[in-house]
Predict the 3D structure of the following.
Amino acid sequence: MKIPVDVGAISLYQDIDREARDEHWQLFKADQTTLPEVIQAFDDVITTDELPKWPEHLSRITDAWAKQIHDYLNPTKPPRKINRPCPSCGEHHYGESREIALVLYCYDDEGVMLRWGQWSAECRACAARWESDQLDWLSKVLSE
Ligand SMILES: [Zn+2]
């Protein structure tokens, strides 16, 4: 029987596990048996003031891990593709996989649609960008 495995999640776990054990070794010169024990040891350091400098550092890296996990579980919505050639460089596609070059960013990091004035567009071939009222111009040019 095959067990379904999320390779991306395993990879993220291994990255965090490796970094956590490195930090733990620098701090205590000792190995813990499990990642939860390592994280618990960090929490103990964060909540005491016996080791100056470490609480801020550990808070920062554990917050970064929490954000990585959150972002992995809540992927941002991909930008919308604009199936027209870029008005700046003329390219319609880019890269080896021939993806559409022009994209429209209309969602925030939480996947919520932004207001029109906050949207932006980008050409992934030439890196030209259009923001706020420049989008009116882009929209006009693309509809010609
Ligand atoms: Zn372009």
